[in-house]
Amino acid sequence: MTLSPSRLLAPLVVGLLGLALWALVVDVLGIGTFFLPGPGEVVTALGESWEPIRAAFWVTAINSLWGLAVGAVLGVAFAGIAATIRLFDGMLGPLVAILAVIPIVAIAPLLYTMLGTDQETPRRIIGGIAAFVPVFISTLRGLRQTTPLQRDLMRTYAAGPVQRFRTVTLPVAIPYTLTGLRVAGSLAVISALVAEYFGGVNNGLGSAIKNAATSNHARAFAYVGGAIVLGLLVFAITAALERLAHRAYPSGESR
Q: Taking burial as the number of CB atoms within 10 A of a residue's CB, which of 51, 155, 172, 189 is the most buried?
C-alpha cells in the first residue's frame, strides 16, 4: 500500500474547497460570529490563544496515548490467551461485546466519582477501553488465520511451539494487530476528548471546547482544530505502522 500524490492531493483539495465554502457562506449570509465564526476569525483566535491550545493539546495527547498503549497491550495479551484457550475465549466474548457498546457519556461521570475529578486516570481508562476492543478483535482474528496446511508443515519439520509461533503465527497476526491499532488510535482520541468534555480537570481540549463554546465560538473552533490535528497525527502514525507491517509481512491482507 503506497500513498500516491493523487491520494494526498485529493483530501487537500477537498479541505481547501470546504474552507472556501465556509467563508463564502458566512460572508454571503451575514452569519454572526456567535453562531458561526468565519475561518479568518478562527485563525485569529488560534493565534491569540496559542499557548492554552498547545497546553490543552498535550494533555489530551498524553491521555489518548496512555489509553491507546494500555488498551493495545491488554488487547494483544488477552487475544493471545483467547486464541490458545478456547474456554477463556468463550468467557471473554460477552465481556468484549459489553465493552464495545458502553456509552462513554455514561461511564465517565461514574469513573470521576469513583477515582476523583482531579485525576487524569478516568480519562485514560476510558481511552483504554475504547482501544482494547478493536485491538483484541483484530489480533484474535489474525492469530487464527494460520491454515491446517501451515500447521502440518511445521509439524513435519518438527518445529516447536515457539518456532511455529515465530515463523507462521506471528507474521500473519501482526498486520491484523496493526489494523486494529489504527482503528483504536482514533477511538482513543475521541474517547479522551469526550471524557474531558463531561467532567474532570479543566485542562484538556475537550474541557476547553466546552468552556469556550459558551462564550467565544471562534476560540471553541480553534480548540476543535487542535483536536482534529491530534486525531490526524495519531491516525497517520498508526496507518504508517500498518503499511510497514504489510510490507514486512505481505501475507497479511489489507482490511
A: 189
- Judge contact between 31 and 210, C-beta under 8 A: no
Domain count along the chain: 1
Three cell numbers, residue 142: 489474525
Establish if 216 belongs to a structural domain: yes
Q: Where are the alpha helices (DSSP H) in 165-216?
A: 170-197, 205-213
Q: Which amino acid is residue 106, in one-letter code? A: A
Q: What is the pLDDT of residues 116-158, one digit of tens each?
A: 888 899 999 999 999 999 999 999 998 887 766 666 566 665 5
H or E element that contains 158: none
Q: What is the pTM of this model?
A: 0.83
Say if 21 falls within a structural domain. no
pLDDT the model gives residue 161: 60
DSSP conformation class of 167: I
Q: Which domain holds residue 145?
A: 38-248
In single-letter form, the type of residue at position 116 comes to: G
Contact 102, 43 (CB under 8 A): no
